[in-house]
Specification:
Number of strands: 0
Largest sheet: none
Radius of gyration: 20 Å
Low-confidence stretches: 126-142
Order of helices and strands: HHHHHH
Number of domains: 2
Shape: elongated
Number of helices: 6
Helix content: 55-70%
Strand content: under 5%
Distance between the termini: 41 Å
Mean pLDDT: 81
Length: 142
């Protein structure tokens, strides 16, 4: 960005693109913002045109899953759990022991996601009338 003052505005504009109700409107908003910054921030405009279009594939998902899929929250949660478990051990005698522990943690998380506590449930539409068991996001994580 040519000016630091532009950061907040650009952030809001990019957020507006991804908050569009469907892909067609998101593409229209992207074209609008590319044209908006063409003269004042040419490099930004080119970057937006080349890179943000790839992110619009999130619109192929159900509306309730879009926000979760375009953030890194799920990955950050996995890293936090791995750090929590490896901190207890402290030092590992070799790389294989670390790999065994991390693999066990990842397998445990995978089983939880498959059987119970799901971050995303592709079987259920995001619907306010869904029962408590069918909620897409459950705050209790091991």
């Amino acid at each position: 960005m040519p000016k630091i003052k532009m950061r907040k505005q650009v952030h809001n504009d990019i957020r507006d693109i991804f908050n569009a109700p469907d892909r067609r409107q998101a593409e229209q908003r992207l074209k609008f913002y590319v044209a908006k910054y063409e003269k004042t921030a040419a490099k930004l405009s080119v970057w937006m045109e080349e890179n943000l279009a790839d992110g619009l594939t999130v619109f192929a998902l159900p509306e309730g899953h879009r926000k979760r899929m375009r953030t890194t929250n799920m990955l950050e949660r996995v890293h936090k759990e791995i750090n929590r478990r490896t901190r207890v051990a402290g030092l590992f005698p070799n790389e294989a022991s670390l790999l065994r522990l991390v693999s066990a943690v990842l397998m445990e998380l995978s089983e939880e996601w498959e059987t119970g506590k799901r971050y995303l449930n592709m079987d259920v539409e995001n619907d306010d009338s869904a029962s408590e068991q069918n909620k897409i996001y459950r705050k209790k994580v091991a």
